[in-house]
Design a protein that fits this description.
Elements: H1 2-43, H2 46-51, H3 55-60, H4 63-73, E1 78-80, E2 85-93, E3 96-111, E4 116-127, E5 135-143, E6 148-152
Antiparallel strand pairs: 1-3, 2-3, 3-4, 4-5, 5-6
């Protein structure tokens, strides 16, 4: 009986430790991507920005034009933003990670012209069903008047 109780206690702990480890990985990847997005917008670096998108979106969209429109949508230079909020999720099958994605939010982005923006995006870290979707699928930039611009699209 003690062995069964011990196993019942150890299994959830091991499971939670595994989830915690992957959540930490998602947090780091999301934070790094958010920092890179902010840098790309600040420097208007289209090439680096494009490289964050998945192959399927890159092939189906004119990312040069979409990103240029997004840069034009941003009025002014970024002065500050809130702490990045990194959401996400995982799927496992037979003990193997089959899907890991992040959905970060960069909120309260203030520019030197007094404008405020919010950015959300979806990026797959792991997607066994379609590796061409690994990377960013879409990004939505919203201003304080609720006007939006979208780069890419939601596919999966």
């Amino acid at each position: 009986m003690k062995k069964i109780l011990l196993i019942m206690l150890i299994f959830p702990i091991c499971y939670l430790v595994g989830c915690s480890k992957n959540s930490t990985n998602q947090e780091k990847i999301g934070t790094d991507m958010c920092n890179e997005i902010m840098r790309c917008i600040h420097e208007e670096d289209i090439e680096s920005f494009k490289s964050m998108f998945c192959d399927q979106i890159s092939d189906a969209h004119d990312l040069d034009s979409e990103i240029k429109l997004a840069f034009d949508f941003f009025d002014g230079k970024i002065l500050s933003h809130d702490k990045f909020l990194i959401g996400g999720g995982d799927s496992m099958r037979d003990g193997e990670l089959t899907d890991s994605h992040i959905v970060p939010i960069i909120d309260n982005i203030k520019t030197d012209t007094g404008k405020t923006y919010k950015i959300t995006y979806l990026s797959y870290i792991v997607l066994n069903q379609n590796e061409r979707l690994i990377g960013m699928q879409y990004m939505i930039i919203r201003d304080e008047n609720d006007e939006t611009i979208m780069i890419g699209e939601y596919i999966y």
